[in-house]
Specification:
InterPro entries: SNase_OB-fold_sf (IPR035437), Tudor (IPR002999)
Structural class: alpha+beta
Protein name: Tudor domain-containing protein 7
Helix content: 25-40%
Oligomer: single chain
Strand content: 15-25%
Largest sheet: 5 strands, mixed, barrel
Organism: Dermatophagoides pteronyssinus (European house dust mite)
Number of domains: 1
Number of helices: 6
Shape: globular
Pfam families: TUDOR (PF00567)
Number of strands: 12
Strand order of the largest sheet: 3-4-9-11-10
């Protein structure tokens, strides 16, 4: 295997594992909240201190650390539509109807991630401190994304719903087309799951460089393992976005390996807070400040560049 491809897949595994670990952590916290609610509910019933109208029945509103509360019913309605909406379609039903129910419009675009001050983020693939990906990680995003991802995987686990993005006998894929592929893994025991991609570069018939829209990473994928993305899965906004540290520049003309490695050591495997400052027009990068609790990562990188890192 080409060493560059091997390295990119190793980095892909790291990003994917961080996201899955954090998602599982929040899911476990949610389950613990529900169990505690059940215990309180039983205690109230046994004590007879409250009637049925006043007894605590548990809440679907969850609280996690720095972010605001969230209502899971509202999140799911926003993602899949309300059952009261006449245009609402049931994803579970749709997933059982192969091919006849596929809708693929190449002109339909996936909405960009909406970035607000104070959002929780985790780091994706890093090229330099001014060229990297961030992944939105607010609790409400985690809950809704897990629902979305389960629906996506249920749909594409049915091989009748998979149509190759590149047509038979075709020699190329147009760049920037959406698709779906399994996240590559160098570990045989790792679960490979379907995820949304966008073709970045297709230089030969065998492989394509693909941007994993919700995981903030670019990695090569075998072209015959990329499938068309159904329109129902284009409605959910991208979870990751390009970013750059604001007011930070390399000591010389280009970023050194040590400068990039230092930034990675500050940000990797961390739950960070973003303060967006500006959008670089030519490639939609979000210039931002990143905070790790009380640590200003921008300041730390600048101090390192000036040789006075704390």
């Amino acid at each position: 295997m080409d060493m560059e491809i091997y390295y990119q897949r190793m980095r892909s595994d790291e990003v994917f594992n961080v996201i899955r670990n954090l998602s599982e952590k929040f899911a476990m916290m949610n389950q613990n909240d529900i169990q505690m609610a059940d215990v309180n509910n039983n205690n109230d019933h046994n004590d007879g201190n409250n009637n049925n109208d006043n007894r605590f029945k548990g809440s679907t509103t969850l609280y996690y650390g720095r972010s605001q509360s969230l209502d899971t019913d509202k999140i799911i309605n926003n993602l899949y539509g309300s059952s009261d909406n006449p245009n609402h379609s049931n994803n579970a039903d749709n997933n059982n109807n192969p091919l006849d129910n596929l809708n693929i419009n190449d002109n339909l675009r996936i909405p960009d991630a909406k970035v607000d001050a104070g959002d929780d983020v985790i780091i994706g693939e890093i090229n330099t401190p001014c060229n990297f990906y961030l992944i939105k990680n607010n609790p409400d995003i985690i809950v809704s994304f897990m629902e979305f991802e389960e629906s996506l995987n249920h749909f594409y686990n049915n091989d009748k719903n998979r149509i190759n993005l590149i047509e038979l006998y075709s020699t190329s894929i147009e760049n920037n087309r959406y698709g779906v592929a399994k996240i590559p893994s160098t570990l045989e025991q790792s679960e490979k799951r379907w995820a949304r991609i966008q073709v970045v570069n297709h230089s030969d018939q065998s492989t394509s460089q693909c941007f994993f829209i919700d995981y903030g990473m670019v990695t090569p994928i075998l072209t015959n393992e990329i499938y068309k993305l159904d329109d129902r899965f284009k409605q959910y906004p991208a979870r990751s976005f390009k970013a750059a540290l604001a007011d930070v520049s390399p000591k010389s003309e280009f970023w050194s390996l040590s400068e990039t490695s230092f930034f990675e050591s500050l940000s990797k495997d961390k739950e960070l807070i973003i303060i967006p400052m500006n959008i670089i027009d030519n490639d939609d990068r979000h210039e931002c400040n990143l905070l790790d609790n009380d640590i200003d990562i921008n300041d730390e990188v600048n101090n390192f560049i000036r040789g006075s890192c704390s």
